[in-house]
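Contributing new records

If you add data, match the layout below exactly. Sequence lines come first and carry their own label; structure lines follow with theirs. Keep one chain per record. Anything else will be rejected by the validation script.
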Amino acid sequence: MRLTKSDLLATFCVGAGAVVYLLWLLGVGWSGATGVRVVAAVVLVLGFAASASAVVPGFSDLMHGSKSYMAGASLLGAGALTAGLIALLQGNSLALGLLIGADLLLWAGSTARHTLAANRVRSGGPGPNLGSPISI
């Protein structure tokens, strides 16, 4: 499988957020509402970084691509932001879990889409310019 540099950065950010969340679930760090707020802040920052690295470089391709993908990803992203803000402001652990789930779904969808597009380009088919692929 080949990933672009931006997809690798997004993978690192989402993975780091998931590790922070899992450590919180295991009881490492603050407990209660304070812990939820701290984890939510970290996950939101990492989620924004992942989004900026994976989406922003290919935004023009996204705007000219699948409208249903863009609509679904936008709705899921809005849901992630809403859940993150609820977790951050209210210390709600359910909202934190929803944020993590949405981040993972957004990352998986984006990475799969980019990988499929890169495979089409390598096979001679049409596809967006996704940056320089890296083999992993």
